[in-house]
User: What shape does this take?
Amino acid sequence: MRSGARASKPPVPSRLGRWATSHLRERGCPVTAFGVVAPIVVIAALGLLFARKAVHAALALAVVMIGLAVLYAANGAPFLFAVQIIVYTGAIMMLFLFVVMLVGVESGPDAVSEPIPGQRVAAAFVGLAFGAMLVIGVAQVVSNGFSVPKAAVEDDNVEGLAALMFGPYVLAFQFTAALLVTAVLGAMVLAHQERLTPQETQAEAAARRLREFAEDGRHPGNAPTPGVYARHNAVDAPALLPDGTPLESSVPGSLVRRGQVVPPPVTRGPGNSPAKRPAGDKEGEHRE
Amino acid sequence: MIIWLLVAFPALGAALLLTWGKESDRFGHLIATAASALSFVWGLVLFVRLLGRDSDDRTVTESLFTWISTGSFHVEMSFVYDPLAALFVLLITGVGTLIHVYSIGYMAHDERRRRFFAFLNLFVAAMLVLVLAGDYLVLFLGWEGVGLASYLLIGFWQHKPTAAAAAKKAFVVNRVGDVGMALAIMLMFKEFGTTEIAAVGDSVAGATANTITALGLLLLLGACGKSAQVPLQSWLLDAMEGPTPVSALIHAATMVTAGVYLVVRSNAIFDASETARNAVVIVGLVTLIAGAIIGCAKDDIKKALAGSTMSQIGYMMLAAGLGPAGYAFAIFHLVTHGFFKANMFLGAGSVMHATNDDVDMRHYGALRTALPVTFATFGLGYLAIIGFPGFSGFFSKDKIIEAALGHNVWIGLATVLAAGVTAFYMTRLMAMTFAGRKRWREDVHPHESPRVMTVPLVVLAAASVLGGVMVLGDWIAGWLEPVVGQTEHHEVVLLGAEWPPIAVSALVTVVVAIGVAVAWTTYGRGEVADTAPEKVSFLTRAARQDLYGDAINEWVAVRPTVTLSRGIAWFDRFGLHRAITGVVTLIGEGATGMRAWQNGFVRSYALGIFVGALVVTLSLLVVVWR
Amino acid sequence: MSELLGLSMILFTIGAVGVLVRRNALIVFMCVELMLNATNLAFVAFAREHGTLDGQLAAFIVMVVAAAEVVVGLAIIIAIHRSRGSISVDDVRQVRG
Assistant: This one.
């Protein structure tokens, strides 16, 4: 996609696009890529700022990144457009979402109250001041308009970047390579959990199970999988014992701790007819 | 001539007695008296030797060692023996030895007698250093030495708080005078580069008038302190707290005359500055009148004599301030005064000894029958001081009055009047003590003093009578000429006519007789009240309060200083201290306040960084826009 | 070009304010990523302005560094969550004075 340089041949637009551009152009308002993408990006960024849940924030950030990718493409950086989508949105944002999953979607601490007095006011004030200063100051300093793009910008983008990367900036390239290796090592070190006690061998585990059965009466066999003897086999639906009570140990402990286990009335056996459900409860409403 | 021997004897005596300790209590007083006597004998020898020389060869300088030698400042420990010094040496050692002998009896019952004699010897040694000094710094050494001895002796009875206070007062007031002395010496060094007396005398010709006047006034300040002249006179009456021999030796005959000695010794300076001379005359005049008035109202016999001393030294100062016309007579009166005042003080001590150490004259009366020798000797001293014709005091005082009249008629008349007042209060003293009816207290049985005390009285009385011989043939003026120069003689012109000396003497005698008569009728014939009367004239009240000398000192010097020091202490506590602790508190509070910024929240720190970035960017933009 | 820069500045400011205001460490991290993206946009804008590719290369390197940073940073967040159970940046207050 190219920017709004009218000298070049525009691509074949869709019917909607043709109507939109001609319609708006008649009203003296040229439609550009920037004009469309910028508001979306800003709204998404504000959404990131104000989102309650981490997942919503991550999705907002993804929208921003894609919007920026579009802008890169519109400004003569096709390679960056691709890298932005693949690396940033595709890898980094996915990393974020994985961590959100590991940590738990509910564990955001952003309550309404702010522990540091005056922080929000100060942040808003300074943010506005900073933004105003930057926009008015910096953006206006550069008073030139768009210059005519040079050939190297458009056609030989990848080759040109390669020539720069392995030419004048080869040292930077090498250092970033080393940085990547270091980062991987660092992550490995951070994620490593040192065993404080020796790992229980199979024989020891078996002996422990039988001892517990002797002392506490715990069932020495495998834990039942969730949903067995139940209507549902989702991870959060506990298995039911013959008398109908849910078996806590069949559900992952984290779900129990978060209170995300499906309650028994929904999982009860064939007797779970609509007439026997609690009043006002429709099928599946308990399932959150 | 070995001059330093004079000093060595009493100095050795003092050192010996102070270091030997209790063992020497039995014979310490004999050692001290012997040391003083040896010094007198040697002084006599040196005097005779000096007499044998020609009159222009009578200055002997002896340098013991170089005391100070730094850079351009060079001071020798030098002694100079000349006619002036010779007279003083004889006076100090002669009267001193007699008082040593007297003290053997007077202090017989005191268990610290040995120390007393040690201090007496110390005094004699220091005073000799003072008068024999060839350099102002050596003189100052002796000056301070006699001040120390005075302090030790006034406060000898340490257990009495009044004595301790009096000693402190004497020392402090003397210190004020010493400031003047020290400044004078410093000025001498600055202007002349030397402090040697002879050299200073020679350098006077080349110095500016202001320097000379300043030197004169500063030396006068020092003299005022030592000689108890106004304005530094308040310590003398309190100094009577000390034992009577001390009062006789130090505060009558010798130490208090050191001021006069200083003025006469520095005659080169005073000759060159009329302002300084006038200041000396005024000081002397004021003091002689003040002392006379104070002496009239005192019931304490020693304080009355002290007032008299103050007045007589005023006479000497006045004479010294008259310049070459009066130097010789000042010294003459100094010597005769030494005789009869020491005589009378020792006599007072004898009276006190007889009345259980009571000093109040209102408890005396009719003591002449009980104390015949004391009465006789005291009487001779009395006649000398009032100027009875033929006695020593007659000649010495009349010479001064003559010189005063020749200088200025009004000053002269004031001295004549003061002579009359002197006669008044001395007759009052004699009448209250020896005449009238007995006013003795219950347990008082007066008896004559032992021989060891009466013999010195007799000797001094004889000197009081015969001391006038010094003026025969103008001997004293000629004797002192190498030191003070030719004694000028001014004609006395009163009421348009010139009065010969004999007429002046007659006038003085008449005034004296009037004074004696008034006193005799009031106190001799009339009734003397047992206790001091309450309703008295303003002048009497003022005289009882030492002419408010203490009150003036209190308001002029003590109160401002105390207020100033209180203010400074307050300022230090509330101002300075608070300021410093305020700084500390400020820093502490500031730090505590700033601690609040370190709240551990990453977001606060991030806000700080953000604000900083804002400021930096803003300033960069401002620079760019300019 | 100036509108691109303006957009970049706006995004940067939003990211900075987000770092100050949000307490969830993950969201703070996301705001940091937003700031990095804003600078990338500025780089591209200047590259376009000058007609060279240096700015785009710089943006590319920024992306690489951002990737490395995200890896390490998220590992740290997970480690902290494992030991403390919380991912609020306010809970790590040991540096208080």
